Amino acid sequence: MVETTQTRKIILDSGWLAARSTEVELDGTQLTTTHPPTDPTARWMEAVVPGTVLGTLVKNKVVPDPFYGLKNKAIIDIGKSGRDHYTFWFFTTFQFKLSENQHTDLNFRAINYSAEVYLNGHKFVLPKGMFRRHSLDVTDFLHPDGQNFLAVLVYPPDHPGKIPRSGGQGGDHEIGKDVATQYVEGWDWVAPIRDRNTGIWDEVSLVVTGPVKIIDPHLASTFYDRYHRVYLHATTQLKNKGSRVAICSLNIQYWTFELEGNICLVDHLQTQHLSIPPGAQIQYTFPEIYLYKPHLWWPNGMGEQSLYNVTITVEVNGYGESDSWSHLHGFRKIESYIDSATGGRLFKVNGQPIFIRGGNWILSDGLLRLSEARYRTEIKYHADLNLNMIRCWGGGLAERPEFYRYCDIYGLLVWQEFWITGDVDGGSNGPLDHDLFMLCARDTVKLLRNHPSLALWVGGNEQVPPDDINTALKTELELHPHHKNVNETENSVHNLSASWKDPSEYLDSTRIYIQGSLWDGFADGQGGFTDGPYKIQNPESFFKDDFYSYGFNPEVGSVGMPVAATIRATMPPEGWTIPIFKKLSDSYIEETPNPIWEYHKYHPYSNPGEVHDQILLYGVPKDLDDFCLQAQLANYIQYRALLEGWNSHMWKKYTGVLIWKTQNPWTGLRGQFYDHLLDQTAGFYGCRCAAEPIHVQLNLVTYFIEIINTTSEELSDIAIEVSVWDLEGTCPYQEVHENLSIPRKKTVPITQMKYPKSKNHPKPVYFLLLKLYNMSDHSIISRNFYWLHLAGGDYKLLEPYRKKRIPLKVTSKTSIEGSTYEIEMQVQNTSKKLDSRGSSLNYKNNFIARHGDGDFDMTSLKHVHSRSEGKGGSSLFQRIFRNFSRESDGSRVVEINGDDVGVAFFLHLSVHVSKTDYKEGEDSRILPVHYSDNYFSLVPGEVMPINLSFDVPPGVTPTVLLKGWNYNGEHAVI
Questions:
Q1: CB 780 within 8 A of CB 847
Q2: What is the pLDDT of residue 29?
Q3: Which of 44, 74, 91, 354 has a CA that sits 20 to 30 A from residue 592's CA?
Q4: 72-109: pLDDT as tens digits
Q5: Cα separations (Å) of 524 from 149, 335, 425, 521?
Q6: How far is CA 823 from CA 463, 820, 859, 864, 902, in A?
């Protein structure tokens, strides 16, 4: 039980017990009066609340972990067992005593699918619907002595469906008849969730107020004079729960936080006086509050995410403060329309067009083990990816306030869909109970509408809701007239007040509603299945004019193989075998994965007839480590090329793209930038590179060097350094283009690469390094490193390159605060260039500081030895290299000696528990870790700054290991 200090709210998230209803002979009245369960027994087990029945069963090891290997097959599906098997009692006790004139509500923020609630012998019925809040006034049912008993009988969805032997999207589609998550019968990226997410899956709380309660305030903003003037609008419901007329003082104020001295200032305070009859619920709209030149909220990559704390309080004569509510409000204006040049939907934020580069999101965890810490990590990952939008897909959740709070903080625009999917609802009339659907939709809007990150509502995935639902959503989510008008400078607040309702009186008035993900500026705009493709592509295909025909692609997907450590951590040894490669008659390769990979929806790196196998480009892998390393090379190339292809056509052909998908809610093997254990794939860093706000890239079709400027500022006095490096460590091609200027929000081709066409004997495999920098101080704005082969070739020459011994020097400083480590590192390739071609930036990567990377005050960390030293003695890596470690001025320096000259290729850092007695398959990684970059390469003389941050469990000492393509084994650099 957690009591929050922000409001008088007690969160009931611990001490719960659970039991299958068929194994409990008592009813709810008996459980909460005469026969309460006291401790775990044969029938009662520790429960996960918030969570699901399956999550509770997994925690207690009643069923195996469905995310490991083929264990999900051993768990009985609700389609076979019947609903009673997953109908469960949840029970808890809590200590709480009311003071005089206080009122208490018992709140369930969501439950799946319906429930009976018993409190101290009194029964309440929670009606159906996964996406609705329930609030019970329990003031008269709390025990005077403070000891209270709470039991909840939770029923699964009415139509859980059955899983056809062939699987398929959404099983037999029966789940579409309910207002619930639709992915739970299985999809082409997830196995069926056996309990269909039955449970008390979101927050349970007690909220204490005085006589008057604040209900669902709504904040909105209107802007004038080129965003120099803004009006804050607020409407709230007020309910008098007392037996007398309440004479109230209603206050609204917004706060800004000054970092210096942690001083909190009240910028504005407004007080209104009103009276509320006993038992009445009224709506009150505040007079507009005026601000001059507010700090605006911007999406990731466009500016700061400025947030104001808006607080509403109500004081009642004779009682004092009765209730309070607060929310972080961002002043921003989102506009959206179909772009005439591309036919794609275009978004503007605060008057500035934003080129959408985002990802599709399902949900954080398939067992709904949702946590604020995991939300923070995953949303920050999306910001680190340089993405600016997340689409919450219609087969998943209406995401939780904690998800949105971190999207607010990190600047991720959110596209939120309602619970309709073409695969499940196509050809049907959607949910059986349309009134229930709309009730859940309205309640979801009220729950989420105050978040500045929420950009648009969408009726469904690849499907339009039934006509009556669609019409109702269009009507109730109508924009305020102010937000329909692109030319906002013509509005006046006086006309606004006189002729229109206040924006905060709408259900939602500041963001659009689109009827479906393939309509109105998305895909072909007419509902045709024109999203995708979802298979691996030749990298150059993304740059071709005919790759995708429409302005905004809401789903384009590809591969997502994780690293070998994740496979070993989530599968038994029989799952560690790599696919069988079979050459077809047309010379293309077909991959046959092992049964465990197939169950985990492995997505092959070949597309027979279209794309040659992108793993075999590097040679035939000999084992799991080889395969996963080569997969990371393919991941990086694939996702960088995907986004760079869209960059190349910015505003001329495309307005945006959303990658299918950024993550997996289980241990899947496709379409992800990080795995379910929260370790990033190399595709993460390929995406991060390509999605920079200012980016230099190579067009893989035209071979032009292009600069992409997605910001609202013109670039001037900049230059590009282009250098080609071969496998011998020489630089056969280098040129610098100076005094460049790039207009705002433009893609500009600068020059066509002369290499390899200009050479009589070009190298079959070579490296290309691009650096975009400021001429005034040589600070690097964008850096991009490619490995390339001649047309019709492959990367097999990189196999012998693994024997290169390139010297490195790693300098690091570490700061430790509690359990949090922050490491500032510099990795340098200390080999010398074999020839000189004048001035070069290679010897110093003076990167421009990026907002959010953080500046650390570092201290040294003690030396730790490489865990590559096994019981059999030193590894080949240890025998060949001599390693020197020294400490100076608080810095730790590790030198890896080698005699060769060349590129230190595809370096990868990871953080581990520092110990030596590892068992086979044991996962020693510390996760999650935030890296400023990873999977990077260094040309001779080049220095790369890398920042890491992570938390460690109590009593654990971490070590940072370095691996690389031409660095056998692992080496401890910290």
A1: yes
A2: 98
A3: 74
A4: 999 999 999 999 999 999 999 999 988 888 999 999 99
A5: 56, 21, 20, 7
A6: 47, 10, 9, 15, 27
Interval 734-759: pLDDT, tens:
999 999 999 999 999 999 999 998 87
d(CA 293, CA 772): 34
- Token pair for 487: 């030319």
- Provide the 10 A C-beta neighbour count for residue 322: 25
Closest CA to 299 of 344, 347, 232, 233: 347
CA proximity to 106, closest of 131, 134, 128: 134
Q: Measured between alpha carbons, how far is 3 from 175 in angstroms, rounded to an integer?
A: 37
> Please, which pLDDT band fits residue 231 given cuts at 50, 70 and 90?
very high
866-899 b/e (C-beta count within 10 Å ≥ 16 → b): bbbbeeeeebebbeebeeeeeeeeebbebbbebe
Question: Residues 767, 772, 778, CA angle at the centre, nearest 5°?
Answer: 115
| In the block, residue with structure tokens 């039934």 | 466
E-strand spans in 804-890?
808-817, 820-829, 883-888
What pLDDT is stored for residue 876 in this prediction?
Answer: 29
Catalytically annotated residues: 462, 555
Distances (CA, A) of 587 to 325, 620, 638: 66, 15, 22
pLDDT at 269: 86
Q: Is the pTM of this model over 0.85?
A: yes
Confidence (pLDDT) at 850? 53
Residue tagged 């601000």 (tokens): 291
The reported pLDDT for the residue numbered 494 is: 45
**Residue 836 pLDDT > 60:** no
The H-or-E segment that residue 971 falls in is strand 967-972
pLDDT of residue 466 exceeding 50, the answer is: yes
Q: Where on the phi/psi map is residue 538: left (φ > 0), alpha (ψ -120 to 50), or beta?
A: beta
Q: Which residues contact 666 (CB under 8 A, 6 or more apart)?
A: 66, 67, 190, 191, 365, 366, 676
Structure tokens given for 35: 């026969």
Distance CA 344, CA 531 (A): 13
Residues 78 and 93: their CA atoms lie apart, in Å, by 29
Instruction: Give the Å distances, CA to CA, from 41 to 45, 47, 149, 284, 749.
Output: 6, 12, 18, 51, 70
Long-range contacts of 307-310 (CB under 8 A, 24+ apart): 307/408, 307/409, 307/452, 308/254, 308/255, 308/256, 308/267, 309/254, 309/255, 309/256, 309/257, 310/219, 310/232, 310/234, 310/252, 310/253, 310/254, 310/255
Burial class (CB in 10 A: 0-12, 13-18, 19+), 493: middle
- The 8-class DSSP code of residue 99 comes to P
Q: Round to the nearest angstrom and report the end-to-end CA distance of the chain.
A: 40
- Compute the 3-state secondary structure of the chain and give helix, strand, coil in percent, each to the nearest 5: 20, 35, 45
The pLDDT confidence band at residue 487, using thresholds 50, 70 and 90, is very low
Q: 381, 65 in Cβ contact below 8 A?
A: no
- List Cβ neighbours of 792 (8 Å cut-off, separation of 6 or more): none
In single-letter form, the type of residue at position 953 comes to: P
Among residues 646, 899, 932, 922, which one has the least CA distance to residue 783?
A: 932
- CA–CA separation, 388 vs 369, rounded Å? 25
Identity of the amino acid at 180: A
